[in-house]
Amino acid sequence: MKNHESVTRIEPCLFGENIPTKTSDLAIDLVAKSSNLSAWLPPKTAESLSSIVRMMNCYYSNLIEGHNTKLQDIERALNSDFEEDDEKRNLQFEALAHIEVQRKIDQLHINGKLGNPTSIEFILWLHKEFYNNATEEMLTIKSENRSILMEAGSFRSTNEHNVIVGRHIPPGGQHVLDFMRFFEERYNQAAGASHQIMAIASAHHRLAYIHPFLDGNGRVCRLMSHAMGLKAGIGASGLWSISRGLARGLYSPDEYKMKMSLADMKRQGDYDGRGSLSLRSLVDFTDWFLKLSIDQVEFMTNLFELPHLKKRLANYVKSKELKPESMYILEAVLSNGEIPRGDAVRITGLKERSARTVLSKLTEDGILSSDTPKGAVSLRFNLNSSRLLFPKLFSDFTLDE
Q1: Alpha helix locations (H) across 120-192?
Q2: What pTM value is reported for the model?
Q3: Which among 31, 261, 335, 380 has most CB atoms closer than 10 A?
Q4: CATH code of the domain occupying 306-389
């Protein structure tokens, strides 16, 4: 079998000026809905909610890879509590790595230091960070007749690194760097919000098409897409997850692999663009990707909108049999992001000792916490509280929502 090693093999990468109206409308809709998702949330509340979304993102990204890592095992990994079984422990390491890399991406964005997500430098950084603490066993790539030790943060680079992915033959190892230079150059040309948003979908497919690493390509693609969303202004403070959408699809969990495979299609005649690959297939994939993104933003908005979140917190107080005045404190924290501990008396209308008891119960429960023992308290969402507050957040492929 012979590869076509011209870098233009991944064209078309962008739509140019010929953007279909339907695709443009989807991009505009995504901008509007993602803006609404985080508009009202105080930074402290958004930060705490985004930590749960990172866990969700990791959970669904693992499912896409065929690794059904239990949620409690992910949370245990976050607390440095690892399984004795090598295979389960390695899955915990992967989960922890995914969450930590996404946290770093989010922090870079918050600090205004997030670089170009489609650059070679950033993509290599993603891979290196993900495998930074990987064991030799996790880095060993085995096939029927060979075993290769993968280097974290390095592209495929030799004939020994040639791979076949299903029916797709990616560029040979010695050509990967040339393809990635072309990839970086082309996606650096995506100017303007709409073009950048549509480029998230096409770059996601084209990076997977190049398959630049021996392993970890899917996770790098999804983390790159997350970073591109933040950069393009649709990230909504990290409050929605493309991985959840890709794992579930719009109607079926099989859609992701099917849509990616269809986007591999060769150009179909003179009315199908001017690249090696089908423009129509790329448009279809982009439309599907944008619809999926809108679906996930709408899902998360339903969870996190102020009226809905207040109602969820009220139900939480009842289910945990906390004092009714607890809700006054939770509402104040929800609206302001955090409150000084001394404000509990004024907010609850209780005497000081009773107010302190109500606040103490909330911090013991874990729904409220502070950075220092006497510091202001803010909402803290962990796996246990999220199971009660957001029961559908981790529902495995349950489509009757």
Answers
A1: 120-130, 136-139, 176-187
A2: 0.91
A3: 380
A4: 1.10.10.10
